[in-house]
Fold:
Amino acid sequence: MPTLVNHYYGLRHGESQANALGIIISDPARGVPDFGLTQRGREQARAQVVSCAALVAAGAGVIIYSSDFARARETAEVARVALGAGPVRLRTALRERAFGVFEGGPNSAYEPVWARDREDPTHNDSSVEAARAVRDRAWALVQELEAEHRDATILLVSHGDPLQLVATAFLGRDAREHRAIAPWLPGEVRALG
Structure:
Protein backbone atom coordinates (compact mmCIF):
# COMPACT_ATOMS: atom_id res chain seq x y z
CA MET A 1 0.00 0.00 0.00
CA PRO A 2 1.42 3.41 -0.92
CA THR A 3 2.23 5.93 1.80
CA LEU A 4 -0.30 8.76 1.66
CA VAL A 5 -0.47 12.15 3.34
CA ASN A 6 -4.30 12.22 3.39
CA HIS A 7 -7.10 9.95 4.57
CA TYR A 8 -9.41 8.75 1.79
CA TYR A 9 -12.92 7.33 1.85
CA GLY A 10 -14.93 6.07 -1.10
CA LEU A 11 -18.70 6.57 -1.25
CA ARG A 12 -20.66 4.81 -3.96
CA HIS A 13 -23.72 6.71 -5.09
CA GLY A 14 -26.99 5.57 -3.55
CA GLU A 15 -29.60 3.68 -5.52
CA SER A 16 -30.19 5.55 -8.76
CA GLN A 17 -33.08 5.57 -11.17
CA ALA A 18 -30.91 3.47 -13.51
CA ASN A 19 -30.25 0.95 -10.72
CA ALA A 20 -33.98 0.71 -10.04
CA LEU A 21 -34.60 0.10 -13.76
CA GLY A 22 -31.75 -2.44 -13.99
CA ILE A 23 -30.06 -0.58 -16.85
CA ILE A 24 -26.55 0.67 -17.58
CA ILE A 25 -26.10 4.43 -17.83
CA SER A 26 -22.43 5.25 -18.43
CA ASP A 27 -22.52 7.86 -21.19
CA PRO A 28 -21.99 11.36 -19.76
CA ALA A 29 -24.54 12.73 -22.25
CA ARG A 30 -27.19 10.75 -20.35
CA GLY A 31 -25.68 10.29 -16.90
CA VAL A 32 -24.65 13.86 -16.13
CA PRO A 33 -28.09 15.45 -16.60
CA ASP A 34 -30.36 12.49 -15.79
CA PHE A 35 -30.81 9.27 -13.81
CA GLY A 36 -30.32 10.76 -10.36
CA LEU A 37 -31.07 9.14 -7.02
CA THR A 38 -34.25 7.47 -5.88
CA GLN A 39 -35.58 8.39 -2.45
CA ARG A 40 -34.14 5.11 -1.20
CA GLY A 41 -30.76 6.12 -2.64
CA ARG A 42 -30.80 9.39 -0.70
CA GLU A 43 -31.62 7.52 2.51
CA GLN A 44 -28.87 4.95 1.89
CA ALA A 45 -26.24 7.63 1.37
CA ARG A 46 -27.22 9.65 4.43
CA ALA A 47 -27.35 6.57 6.68
CA GLN A 48 -23.91 5.41 5.55
CA VAL A 49 -22.25 8.81 5.90
CA VAL A 50 -23.58 9.46 9.41
CA SER A 51 -22.59 5.94 10.49
CA CYS A 52 -18.94 6.48 9.47
CA ALA A 53 -17.26 7.66 12.68
CA ALA A 54 -14.18 9.06 10.91
CA LEU A 55 -16.26 11.21 8.56
CA VAL A 56 -18.51 12.42 11.36
CA ALA A 57 -15.45 13.27 13.48
CA ALA A 58 -13.97 15.31 10.61
CA GLY A 59 -17.40 16.88 9.92
CA ALA A 60 -17.12 20.23 8.18
CA GLY A 61 -13.44 19.52 7.52
CA VAL A 62 -14.21 16.70 5.07
CA ILE A 63 -13.29 17.63 1.51
CA ILE A 64 -15.72 16.07 -0.98
CA TYR A 65 -14.81 15.25 -4.57
CA SER A 66 -17.47 13.74 -6.81
CA SER A 67 -18.20 12.40 -10.25
CA ASP A 68 -20.33 14.84 -12.20
CA PHE A 69 -22.98 12.20 -13.01
CA ALA A 70 -26.34 13.16 -11.44
CA ARG A 71 -26.47 10.13 -9.15
CA ALA A 72 -23.02 10.85 -7.71
CA ARG A 73 -23.55 14.63 -7.47
CA GLU A 74 -26.77 14.10 -5.56
CA THR A 75 -25.08 11.59 -3.25
CA ALA A 76 -22.23 14.02 -2.64
CA GLU A 77 -24.72 16.75 -1.77
CA VAL A 78 -26.43 14.43 0.74
CA ALA A 79 -23.01 13.79 2.32
CA ARG A 80 -22.14 17.50 2.30
CA VAL A 81 -25.34 18.43 4.14
CA ALA A 82 -25.01 15.55 6.63
CA LEU A 83 -21.42 16.54 7.47
CA GLY A 84 -21.78 20.32 7.21
CA ALA A 85 -18.87 20.22 4.75
CA GLY A 86 -17.87 22.81 2.16
CA PRO A 87 -18.90 22.79 -1.49
CA VAL A 88 -18.66 19.58 -3.50
CA ARG A 89 -15.83 19.61 -6.05
CA LEU A 90 -16.72 17.82 -9.30
CA ARG A 91 -14.08 15.78 -11.12
CA THR A 92 -14.53 13.86 -14.37
CA ALA A 93 -11.81 11.43 -13.21
CA LEU A 94 -14.46 9.94 -10.89
CA ARG A 95 -17.01 9.35 -13.67
CA GLU A 96 -18.64 6.02 -14.31
CA ARG A 97 -16.71 3.57 -16.43
CA ALA A 98 -17.86 3.77 -20.05
CA PHE A 99 -19.66 0.57 -21.00
CA GLY A 100 -19.74 1.16 -24.75
CA VAL A 101 -22.32 -0.84 -26.67
CA PHE A 102 -24.01 -1.90 -23.43
CA GLU A 103 -25.19 1.68 -22.76
CA GLY A 104 -28.91 1.68 -21.92
CA GLY A 105 -29.03 -2.12 -21.86
CA PRO A 106 -29.57 -4.50 -18.95
CA ASN A 107 -27.08 -4.51 -16.12
CA SER A 108 -26.58 -8.26 -16.68
CA ALA A 109 -23.92 -7.16 -19.20
CA TYR A 110 -21.56 -6.27 -16.35
CA GLU A 111 -20.61 -9.87 -15.52
CA PRO A 112 -19.11 -10.76 -18.94
CA VAL A 113 -17.14 -7.49 -18.94
CA TRP A 114 -15.76 -8.26 -15.48
CA ALA A 115 -14.84 -11.78 -16.59
CA ARG A 116 -12.85 -10.26 -19.47
CA ASP A 117 -11.21 -7.80 -17.02
CA ARG A 118 -9.81 -10.77 -15.09
CA GLU A 119 -8.16 -11.99 -18.30
CA ASP A 120 -7.00 -8.62 -19.62
CA PRO A 121 -7.43 -5.33 -17.72
CA THR A 122 -6.47 -3.41 -20.87
CA HIS A 123 -9.29 -4.79 -23.06
CA ASN A 124 -11.83 -2.45 -24.58
CA ASP A 125 -14.05 -5.08 -26.16
CA SER A 126 -17.43 -3.71 -27.28
CA SER A 127 -16.04 -0.17 -26.74
CA VAL A 128 -15.92 -0.68 -22.96
CA GLU A 129 -13.39 1.56 -21.21
CA ALA A 130 -10.42 -0.55 -20.11
CA ALA A 131 -10.29 -1.39 -16.41
CA ARG A 132 -6.70 -0.19 -16.21
CA ALA A 133 -7.64 3.14 -17.84
CA VAL A 134 -10.37 3.72 -15.24
CA ARG A 135 -7.94 2.88 -12.46
CA ASP A 136 -5.29 5.19 -13.93
CA ARG A 137 -7.60 8.20 -14.23
CA ALA A 138 -8.93 7.80 -10.68
CA TRP A 139 -5.45 7.20 -9.25
CA ALA A 140 -4.11 10.26 -11.10
CA LEU A 141 -6.71 12.33 -9.23
CA VAL A 142 -5.55 10.85 -5.91
CA GLN A 143 -1.99 11.86 -6.79
CA GLU A 144 -3.19 15.42 -7.52
CA LEU A 145 -4.98 15.50 -4.17
CA GLU A 146 -1.85 14.25 -2.44
CA ALA A 147 0.02 17.24 -3.85
CA GLU A 148 -2.77 19.71 -3.02
CA HIS A 149 -3.77 18.66 0.53
CA ARG A 150 -2.01 17.49 3.67
CA ASP A 151 -3.54 15.41 6.48
CA ALA A 152 -7.01 15.99 5.04
CA THR A 153 -10.03 13.70 5.18
CA ILE A 154 -11.15 13.31 1.58
CA LEU A 155 -14.38 11.69 0.43
CA LEU A 156 -14.44 10.41 -3.16
CA VAL A 157 -18.01 9.99 -4.41
CA SER A 158 -18.13 7.76 -7.45
CA HIS A 159 -19.52 4.58 -8.99
CA GLY A 160 -19.03 0.86 -8.44
CA ASP A 161 -16.34 0.11 -11.01
CA PRO A 162 -14.25 3.26 -10.50
CA LEU A 163 -14.24 2.67 -6.73
CA GLN A 164 -13.36 -1.01 -7.14
CA LEU A 165 -10.57 -0.09 -9.52
CA VAL A 166 -9.06 2.76 -7.52
CA ALA A 167 -9.19 0.47 -4.48
CA THR A 168 -6.78 -1.87 -6.29
CA ALA A 169 -4.30 1.03 -6.54
CA PHE A 170 -4.68 1.84 -2.84
CA LEU A 171 -4.06 -1.85 -2.06
CA GLY A 172 -1.18 -2.25 -4.52
CA ARG A 173 -3.07 -4.88 -6.53
CA ASP A 174 -3.47 -5.36 -10.27
CA ALA A 175 -6.55 -3.85 -11.94
CA ARG A 176 -7.59 -7.35 -13.09
CA GLU A 177 -8.37 -8.13 -9.43
CA HIS A 178 -10.99 -5.42 -8.93
CA ARG A 179 -13.89 -7.84 -8.55
CA ALA A 180 -11.96 -9.81 -5.92
CA ILE A 181 -12.53 -6.84 -3.61
CA ALA A 182 -15.96 -6.85 -1.96
CA PRO A 183 -18.19 -4.72 -4.20
CA TRP A 184 -19.43 -1.40 -2.85
CA LEU A 185 -23.17 -1.50 -2.22
CA PRO A 186 -25.32 1.47 -3.27
CA GLY A 187 -24.68 4.29 -0.82
CA GLU A 188 -21.83 2.47 0.93
CA VAL A 189 -18.86 4.37 2.35
CA ARG A 190 -15.55 2.65 2.98
CA ALA A 191 -12.00 3.66 3.95
CA LEU A 192 -9.58 3.63 1.02
CA GLY A 193 -6.34 4.78 2.57
